[in-house]
Amino acid sequence: MANRHRGEIDAELDGRTYRLCLTLGALAELETSFGDDDMLALASRFERGSLSARDAIRIIGAGLRGAGNDVSDAQVEAMRTDGGAAGFVAIVAGLLQATFAGGDEQAAAGRDTTRGASLGDKGAGAGASAPAPFPGRT
Question: pTM here?
Answer without folding.
Answer: 0.75
